[in-house]
Amino acid sequence: MRRWFIIILLLIPFQALSQGLYVFCAMGMAEVVRDMAKEFERQKGINVFVNASSSGKLARQIELGARCDLFISASFRWMNYLKNKGILKSYVPLAKTKLVIVSSKRKRFNTANEICKAERVAIGDYRFAPFGEYALSALKNVGLYECIKDKIVLASHVAQAAVWVSTGDVDAAVIYFSDYMKFKNNLKLVWIFPDNSHKDIIFLASYFTGLGKQFLNFMRTKPYIFKRWGFELAH
Fold first, then answer.
1. Which end of the chain is more exposed for a tag (fewer CB within 10 A), N or C?
2. Residues linked to residue 187 through DSSP beta bridges, in sequence order
């Protein structure tokens, strides 16, 4: 009897066992997507499952066949990676934010140059996390890289870097302004990088199903949620 039950389960389509919407999003936009998901579930009655990680790790999961209705990346690099493999056809800009230096409130850093006094500075692991690519470029362009290059600690995603600062594991970090907004009670905003020090920080979206497109369109109708977390809609 048990064997027949298992065979019947195997014959049921996977979608029937896991109804809902699957959103893969860069960690930097996790809070925005989770807030959107609550609204969407309340209005549409559709469960939303959020998988938040670095853009590179999410792209690799999609490449390996993970179910995904909507992919939100913090990087053109990983969108183009999937596009070149024929996994997605196109993508669109969704939101943008700024790049900042933050420190623990216990540190007396008041200017960008003062982070040269730090013992440990967190940036993203630029092999996978786009905020690390932005940070590396910006630090070099404003002349801060040389004084901290031997003090850099790599975080796998932007929330990890912010937490390290708030817990005192590092003295400072280069993160998105949107992530400062999440942790602002425990972080000090030291400096906002000028726009010309790095490429525009744009989060991109690509949908794989009609449900993914529906959720993306829904997100565009909620600019106040983006603003709440330090973003603005990109066009």
1. N
2. 104
- Find tokens 């979608």 and name the residue: 15
The residue type found at 187 is L
**Kind and range of the H or E run holding 86:** none
CA max distance for the chain: 71
Q: How confident is the model at residue 6 (pLDDT cuts 50, 70, 90)?
A: very low
| Residue whose token pair is 């309340």 | 42
pLDDT reported for residue 18:
53
Residues 6 or more apart whose Cβ sits within 8 Å of residue 117: 109
Whether 120 and 182 share a structural domain: yes
Q: What is the mean pLDDT of residues 204-220?
A: 98
Which residue range forms the structural domain that includes residue 86?
A: 2-96+202-233
Report d(CA 127, CA 125) in Å as an integer.
5
172 residue type, one letter: A
**197 domain residue, yes or no:** no
CATH at residue 50: 3.40.190.10
Span 169-189, pLDDT tens digits: 999 999 999 989 988 999 999
E strand or H helix at 27, and its extent?
none
To the nearest 10°, the Cα dihedral for 18, 71, 60, 73? Answer: -150
